[in-house]
Amino acid sequence: MLFPTALILASSARLASAATAPVFAPPSKGPLVQTANYTSFSNNTLNDKKVVKGKAFSRIIYVWLENTDFETASSTPIFESLSEQGILLTNYNSVTHPSEPNYIASVGGDFFGAHGDSMYHIPSNISCVVDLLEDKDVSWATYQESMPSDEFYGFAATSPDYIFPGTAPYPFYMRKHNPLIIFDAVSQDPERVKRVRTFNDFANDVVNGTLPQWSFVTPNMANDAHDTDIDFAASFLEYWLLPLLTDPRVNGEDTLILITFDENETATIQNRVYAVVLGTAVPVNLRGTTDDTFYTHYSELSTVQANWGLKSLGRQDTNATMSNVFSFVAQKTGYKNVHVSAAQAPQLNLSAVAPGPLNSDAYIPFAAPNLKARGAGGGSVLLRPGLDTKLTAASLPPAVNLAALNTTTPWQMSPETTSGKNIIPCAGAACP
Ligand SMILES: *[C@@H]1O[C@H](CO)[C@@H](O)[C@H](O)[C@H]1NC(C)=O
Ligand SMILES: *[C@@H]1O[C@H](CO)[C@@H](O)[C@H](O)[C@H]1NC(C)=O
Ligand SMILES: *[C@@H]1O[C@H](CO)[C@@H](O)[C@H](O)[C@H]1NC(C)=O
Ligand SMILES: *[C@@H]1O[C@H](CO)[C@@H](O)[C@H](O)[C@H]1NC(C)=O
Ligand SMILES: *[C@@H]1O[C@H](CO)[C@@H](O)[C@H](O)[C@H]1NC(C)=O
Ligand SMILES: *[C@@H]1O[C@H](CO)[C@@H](O)[C@H](O)[C@H]1NC(C)=O
Ligand SMILES: *[C@@H]1O[C@H](CO)[C@@H](O)[C@H](O)[C@H]1NC(C)=O
Ligand SMILES: *[C@@H]1O[C@H](CO)[C@@H](O)[C@H](O)[C@H]1NC(C)=O
């Protein structure tokens, strides 16, 4: 067993604090070789023929790691070398604690009051980035390391403990780090859900030349530093990312790769995380530079909107303060970023203070997006079937129990793993 207390302590767990920190072991012979360590082998490949040219890049790959402070990551050798190859974003911020709301925010434009790592689901009339991408025929997928099969819906999954062979299977996969499966608009759509894929299918898609234009990559609970430490994650990047950087099937023409972290380690100070953009799309004269523009995870949405002229979600992706577009992309697309001084920067280390449909302590229903909003892509707000535009934020009743938010301490106060609206009861041994 890799590190049992990791599950108990949820997102604050650090294997580094254990007496014997594990040493990285490769799950496979290489990032493009399928392996039994991932449980299921690939049985299909994507088949997207169309490539939609973007203004600053034609492919974007997000790689999210876990729970590390900016200073810790930026002073670790592999990350230092990545910073030299790309643009280090020195003022990139997570939006809350703990993990899952950050992942939801990065694809949904809001975390909807979530303050736990529960088995949330978001109804199918609520839009996410996939709607924006498909609206302009931009291909997409998410690749989840150690997810036992494509389309997997469960809360967690164990697989062979290849780091400590001979011990019990380890819960390498957790749904809380798989943002798109949380949206019914993806998970309940038989065509879309095929694009929630395993790492063996990542290998398959790359080898077959069908890696899509937008990908969200989640390494497993050991490789993303969640149950380990930054050195372990660094060794993973050395094994997995570095060879792909020189592979034209991944980092071909016009490719942008964002490496970042879901959140900073502790909640008591601002929530700044390491973020670097690299890849062939980064202009040569900007490689090895830093950019101190105020960004958040919502910038991941606004940047693709600007790049491909997408519609918006009409949520925090259209809040100018919260969603500056990565500068070199803003320059190429003519989008004007706003300056957010340190004094103006919102506190993003807060948790369990926002009412919302994923907060059973202070519940309010899902609201329609702001139809008048204009995002970085310039287009209108995309509406999903079944969305009632009359249910504006202003029209909804106030949260049932706002006072609850005042009596609680941050993030772990109410794990919400088994009950609550928009929360599916978690079943099985891996439930917290
Ligand atoms: C599984 O991982 C272990 C540890 O790194 C490695 O020795 C083994 O070769 C891997 N198995 C496969 C099928 O790649
Ligand atoms: C094939 O893929 C489907 C989902 O696309 C998955 O449910 C199934 O387990 C996979 N089969 C194998 C043998 O990997
Ligand atoms: C994808 O590539 C693999 C390895 O080259 C090959 O075995 C497989 O048949 C291909 N899949 C499809 C659907 O073409
Ligand atoms: C958030 O960070 C601010 C500024 O560093 C700090 O004053 C505040 O106490 C933090 N809030 C929490 C809930 O930790
Ligand atoms: C979190 O981020 C803040 C702001 O960048 C930084 O000063 C702090 O060292 C980080 N780490 C912790 C443990 O708060
Ligand atoms: C935009 O973001 C700022 C900073 O977090 C916040 O104060 C403001 O309420 C947001 N505006 C809207 C319309 O959500
Ligand atoms: C979304 O759909 C659900 C289920 O049909 C419905 O109850 C809810 O009012 C809808 N919400 C919005 C904002 O349209
Ligand atoms: C929560 O606390 C703040 C500050 O103490 C207070 O102003 C506010 O009225 C409280 N809200 C509720 C709903 O109790």
UniProtKB/TrEMBL annotation:
Q: Name one GO molecular function term.
A: hydrolase activity, acting on ester bonds
A GO biological process of this protein is:
phospholipid catabolic process
- State the source organism's domain of life: Eukaryota
Record's keyword terms, sorted? Hydrolase, Signal
N-terminal signal peptide: 1-18
PANTHER family to which the protein is assigned, alphabetical: ACID PHOSPHATASE PHOA (AFU_ORTHOLOGUE AFUA_1G03570), NON-SPECIFIC PHOSPHOLIPASE C4-RELATED
**Protein name per UniProt:** Phosphoesterase family-domain-containing protein
State the species of origin. Mycena metata
